[in-house]
Amino acid sequence: MTALRQLGGTQQRLLRQLLMASEGATVESLCGQLRISHNAVRQHLSALIARDVVERAQSRPSGGRPVACYRLTDAGRALFPRNYGTIATALLTQLQDRLGDAGMEQMLRDLGRGLGNQEVTPPADTPAEEVVRALAHKLDALGYEAVAARHGEEWQVEAFNCVFHALAQRHPQVCKFDLSYMEAATGRRVHHMECIVRGGHVCRFRLGVVLPDETTAKR
After folding, report:
1. Which of 40, 44, 62, 89 could form a disulfide with 36 if both were Cys (CB 3.0 to 4.6 A apart)?
2. How many CB atoms lie within 10 A of CB 59?
């Protein structure tokens, strides 16, 4: 179920009205469109503002007191479905046709490494647990639902959400993006120990040896 559909029906309709109102909507206009009372509209707006999906917009002149307007925040717009998966799969299919498997894999490695190089790489003598926790935090911020987990005598990263799941099923090379990103971000070799796409319960990653600078730069 999408985040939008977890809201009540009236709040969904209110958000759709705001989506279509590029300059914002007034309480009065929302009352007419939703056929509910002023008090009900204000209550729903207050609840949606508290969720950070609606905000006050610039007031609208009315010949008297300016009239308050409301609009969607970026988080509110993000509630509406965006079908990135279809176009991303089509793009990868085209790249695979043009570049071949090896060429597409290298492109994904380059992309992951480029993003990972934007992160601050921990010094080589940083304790392994600290590196793992920092990496899990970075991945969690990207939507991987990642945590640091103890396995025997070492710490590993477990990710419960494969953000590229549908893509990776069609194009397994997508996993190379993840690995290259993590290696560049940590400066360590990363071993993919378990994979959701291949039937695992999680995507699990083990950090290995510290990589020479030229390895993370060229790999």
Report:
1. 40
2. 13
Which pLDDT score, from 0 to 100, does residue 158 have? 95
**Which pair of structure tokens corresponds to residue 91?**
């793009």
Q: Which of 156, 168, 162 is nearest to 193 (CA)?
A: 156
- Collapsing DSSP to helix, strand or coil, 197 comes out as coil
Block means of pLDDT (10 residues each) for the chain, length 219 residues?
81 94 91 95 96 90 81 90 79 90 92 94 94 95 91 93 84 91 96 92 94 61
Provide the token pair at 189. 């070799």
Domain C-terminal end among 29, 51, 77: 77
Task: Work out the number of other CB atoms within 10 angstroms of the CB of residue 95.
Answer: 16
**Judgement on whether residues 57 and 107 belong to the same structural domain of the protein:** no
**CB-CB neighbours of 69 under 10 Å:** 19
Same domain, 72 and 172: no
CA 74 to chain centre: 13
Measure the CA–CA gap between 75 and 77, rounded to whole angstroms. Answer: 5
The domain containing residue 15 runs over which residues?
A: 4-77
| 12 lies in the same domain as 89 | no
pLDDT at 186: 96
